[in-house]
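Minutes, project huddle
Topic: does the predicted pose make sense with cobalamin bound?
PN asked that the exact inputs be recorded in the minutes so nobody has to dig through chat later. Recorded below.
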Amino acid sequence: MRLHLISPTHYLPDGSLHKTTRYWTSGTTLPYLKALTPPGHEVSFTDELMQELDVPRIEREADVVGLTAMGPQIRRAYDLADHFRARGKKVVLGGTWVTLTAEESLRHADAVVAGEAEYVWPQVLADLEAGRSAGIYRADRWHDLSNLPEIDYWSLPLLKPDAFRSSWLYRKYFFWPIMFSRGCPHPCEYCAVQTYYRRSYRTRPVDEFVAEIDRMRALGASRFLFLDDNPVAHPEKAKEMLRQLVPRRVQWVSQATVNVARDPELLDLVARSGARVLSIGFESLNEGSLASIGKSFNRPSRYAEDVAKLRARGIQVIALVMVGLDGDTPETFATTLRWLDENRVSFLKLFTPAPYPGTKFHADMLAAGRIRSDDWGRYDYGTPNVVPTGMTSDEMIDGFKAVYSGFYSVRSMLRRFVPPPRQNLLESLAMIVANVKVNGYLRRNPDAWGTIS
Ligand code: B12
Ligand code: SF4
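Predicted holo structure (tokens), as shared on screen:
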């Protein structure tokens, strides 16, 4: 069969599609699914974030259309699924959102892959080829992450191969995606990842992970993004992997929990193995607010020390912070901004509570009658989808905007970056450029703040 796989983009509030011409990394979902597809099928794909979707060609040539979706992209995914089905194509939906809403997603598709595709994808295709479908396909066990199929890295949807080969600047700009672990054992109630993985956690065999790093290095890659949500959840496994990275002299960025700063041996290995930037889910400075979302392990009383330790090793900290949680009041905004400034956080991503369907947080908010809208196309990080308790929805959005504009103001940038940490000066420079760009973006796109990635 001829398959076309799509990662859709999301709609902007005016109904147009969010697009970008350049991106610093890429997901691997589409080339990975292609690598996973049994021989005998022809696979092409489009990431709509950067590429135009050639709808007439897909209508003409594809037998099966596969769609993945993240967050608000789901609305576009359903629209495309309905469109292609109406034209006689077999449609398969999969990915994080779809997994958490499998029954509903099946109304837009011939088949739904709930959870990992490794064990079920061949069966889905065999069934569709035979003109049948079992509806929702869910593997009966997690994959052990060994012997994963190799993807064609030059086909990464958001990579510009020509620019990579010809431009020093682009080589510094682009981070090659690689995955070490899947899942997360923590109980954060709003989190789609722990819900998808049912709080399970696995790491890849270290030698296979390192062999993949080496294959990518042979292509010229030296900077990597770990796609993991929490690569340090099993610290001893992480240490084993990081020890192998140290002599390879690569640079890497990742998400991680704040625990990364609390184990001296782990932090040392993280720094020596080339960590440059870590995105850390602090979420809140308020113990009560953290308790309301099941994230009490964070312990704000230690944050200042944690950030200082990371900074001292030349690691830039991106803070992920939620505003408008239960326990937050209008005063929370100023306190949060002051803390970010004083602790010289490099970059900020703010989130209004996003009640992703399928999570405990969504179920609780629904039961309490606090969900304001079921327009999933607006389930981004800057829309008041949950009615807050300690403030009005307008106060939440005003505060959200005030923290963002305060943080990305020139005054705050000067406070946070002068003087920069002594190590990894280039990374500080890159962060300053990123701050300046966000400053401009926020002024030009006052309605798109909730979808900054
Ligand atoms: C890389 C990444 C990005 C990148 C690249 C995206 C891209 N277009 O290439 C960037 C940074 C741009 C990004 C953006 C966003 N992302 Co993102 N992203 C990820 C991340 C870290 C890894 C995804 C990946 O490549 N995984 C590797 C592949 C191999 O695994 P996989 O996608 O899970 O696929 C497996 C299965 O799920 C399944 N599968 C998946 N899709 C499909 C489809 C079919 C047809 C089939 C058969 C199977 C299948 O098969 C695969 C093998 O088992 C995940 C975190 C995570 N844990 O998944 C978040 C994640 C998917 N992102 C998320 C979100 C919300 C977003 C944003 C919407 C955030 C925002 N600011 O609004 C934006 C979307 C903007 C846009 N229009 O693109 C959420 C989704 C939550 C949800 N409930 O849907 C996640 C889970 C992060 C999180 N912690 O919450 N993201
Ligand atoms: S620590 Fe992060 S990835 Fe893990 S459950 Fe909490 S929010 Fe999700």
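Observations noted during the meeting:
- The two ends are 35 Å apart (CA to CA).
- Residues 2-137 form a domain with the Rossmann fold fold (CATH 3.40.50).
No decisions taken; revisit at the next huddle.
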